[in-house]
Fold CTP synthase.
Amino acid sequence: MKYVLVTGGVVSGLGKGVTASSIGLLLKACGLRVTAIKIDPYLNTDAGTMSPFEHGEVFVLDDGGEVDLDLGNYERFMDIKLTRDNNITTGKIYQSVIDKERRGDYLGKTVQVVPHITDAIQDWIERVAHIPVDGKTSPADVCVIELGGTIGDIESMPFIQALGQFSYRVGAGNFCLVHVSLVPVLNVVGEQKTKPTQHSVRALRGQGLTPHILACRSTMVLDENAKGKLSQFCLIPAENIVTLYDVPNIWHIPLLLRDQKAHEAMFKVLNLHGVTKEPNLEEWTCRAESSDLLHEPVRIALVGKYTCLSDSYLSVLKALLHASVDCQKKLVVDWIPASNLESATAKENPDAFKAAWKLLKGADGVLVPGGFGDRGVQGKIIAAKYARENRIPFLGICLGMQIAVIEFARSVLGVQDANSTEFEPHTKSPYIIFMPEGSKTHMGGTMRLGSRRTYFQTKECKSAKLYGCKSFIDERHRHRYEVNPDLVARLENAGLSFTGKDETGQRMEIVELPNHPYFIGAQFHPEFKSRPGKPSPLFLGTSPLHVCIICPS
């Protein structure tokens, strides 16, 4: 097993996750099988209880793991299926060590960061790296490891110590370190400054890790003078220094690495010359370049709660992008804070109210994504009503499906107090209820999570046709509330159709309006399995019907 470690320096948010994903894609294009691990130094056991404002979206895996959004990038770029153990956190490591201590596994020894925590980190990496993630039975050839945070952070120090030890455990020729750092350009003089990266590499060396390859983030291509300085002061060959300059879209990053021979530098460090081939990225290159040339816009109104941080809906954005590129359309996402559609905003902030409604009325499609809490719920219901009454393509995901049901009950059935027990625990018309197996005392890991099977009730419905007329599908879930099965008959008698249900037939998974061009709600999250070149069916029609949120007929 070969290991490629990706670290970051100077500042956070440099794009280590995209870089790690691109490295994985490049190695895969050279004929190697790859897997990936993300290390997050925070104390949380997983990302499940973290606010989207704090850390972006929570990505959900097939096994129900609630993980960092970077694992979504890994899956999309490398087309693999990871497990919850592919996301290591300080919380998981300390919990496993404390559990061992309580069992007496350490035989009375004093449990310390070194060697017990560092050994646990190394053991975890080695174990998870050998788990196949590409559908085959044997381990991958290369494991790409991303260390979250920035070199110098207190939280990451045990991991850096462990990774330094790990490089000796696996031996020379099996470990390659790629350090992503910033080379800023001062507008005053227009010169690329290498000092921040020099200091970052010095700090990394001081903690026992020596970078083999330097990936420099900058607004422009690294000039020869800057590259020479970095090579001289960081003790890295000039051919092992690559520039990751600003590009129109992140699909170009693997191409930048390829064009600068980053794969050859890694092969030299990992002794892989002779067992690999030249990278085959023709399809990827075509997709990256064609997406830059799209000019016919398709406007999607995304009505949500966390619209001030786009990373909160990262997988939804990527799924929309995959579908729009497949349709040869230029995606334009109009961000609409759901609360801005509400009547209260018309009084408090009339300009925001008018702007939100202008965007909604100008949209080609309306998407209401998942979320939690009651803020903005009324605005989401208003958006669903507008799409339903004006025959605008609508896709509701998770909470988006639930508010579509509530809106239908209120507007069509005339049940004005129809609600969810999440927002009104004592409502007399509970159209959305808390799932009986859920926990009301513990938040973390207690939702209905991971891949679950949905059975189509008829193959004549839009959603079944979009999925290729299959009898069932497997999609990923993350929810505590569901449509009240006792009220389904009343909803269906009024014209709403629950076309997808779970194996019991009691849990509603897909809802449609048959007489609407495209009005679909899904309790699951289809965005998590969307891939470049393989868009999610609910975001893009794959059958002759070809009615979807991006390409309405």
